[in-house]
Amino acid sequence: MSKTKAKRARREAKREESRKFAPHARKAAKPSSTTGAAASNAQTPKLRPGLKGKEIREEVRRRKVEAAKGMGTGTGTGNVQASQKHAIPFGVYDRILLVGEGDFSMTRCLAVEIGCADVTGTSFDSEEEVREKYPTFPTISTDLSALTPPVPLHHTIDATKLSTYKTLKPPPNHPWDTIAFLFPHVGGLSTDVNRQVRSNQALLVSFFKSCLEVPTTDVGKATFSSAAANANPRPFLKMGGKVIVTLFEGEPYTLWNIRDLARHCGLKVVESFKFDWGMYPGYGHVRTLGAIEGGGAWRGEEREARM
């Protein structure tokens, strides 16, 4: 028998076996009231350290409600089935670095709502500028500092020079698992579309390269070298780690050609999927220039975006 025929025969045998045992599997999958409760508890993600009493009960209840909402039946109710939604790309035990934060609402969402245990948020603005621009920041900052341990927030951080900051330098053998830049934009530098496109492309390229640099120390000064030239490289982003960028759909963002920019910097484009605002409770997009007086500006949550 040829290899092709042998593979076909194995596939047919697997199909026949699955048809034979499918009814039994469905019957066995129906849990009793006690085993069902145990399974539900076993599947509940671990909660963030520091929660107590009522906080734990509220967090468990909230997650159960969200899980129930995500389990659409596909019977014409209009709900999206859980299998059709892309999972949140932030692991609860990953070392996560967020850059270019505005009011730090995404940092709060990941740490408090999602339950990520190791999140660090950074902003390009100084702390004074953040407080002046975003009225929501003081409350968010208080929530994050009250956690155990407190979520670190760093200001005046340039996303194009990440590995030059001692405060962001990863400890030995613990580089960042995920670095995320949500809705990067240089701001209103010009009304010329082509100039804006080039400026934002330069921002992204510098950001990508900064994620891949290997910081070393030389006479107290920060220098950089390739992993090949460094006998004991300590990468900023771990091998196989993720760089996440979120952009709005349509022009001018599609003109940035982010896939080509990433490949040019040595990154592999793994996937692209719709950004689901509803999966990040409490997160609100804020424009680069901060809150617009009078509230007449467009809201990011009303626009389609991709991650």
TrEMBL record:
GO molecular function: rRNA (uridine-N3-)-methyltransferase activity
Compositional bias annotation for Basic residues: 1-12
Identification of the protein by name: 25S rRNA (uridine-N(3))-methyltransferase BMT5-like domain-containing protein
PANTHER family, A to Z: FERREDOXIN-FOLD ANTICODON-BINDING DOMAIN-CONTAINING PROTEIN 1 (PTHR11538:SF26), PHENYLALANYL-TRNA SYNTHETASE (PTHR11538)
Region Disordered, annotated ranges: 1-59
Cellular component, GO annotation: cytoplasm
The 25S rRNA (uridine-N(3))-methyltransferase BMT5-like domain, residue ranges: 97-287
Biased composition annotated in UniProt, kind: Polar residues: 31-44
Pfam families, alphabetized: BMT5-like (PF10354)
Biological process, per Gene Ontology: rRNA base methylation
InterPro entries assigned to the protein according to its UniProt record, in alphabetical order: BMT5-like (IPR019446)
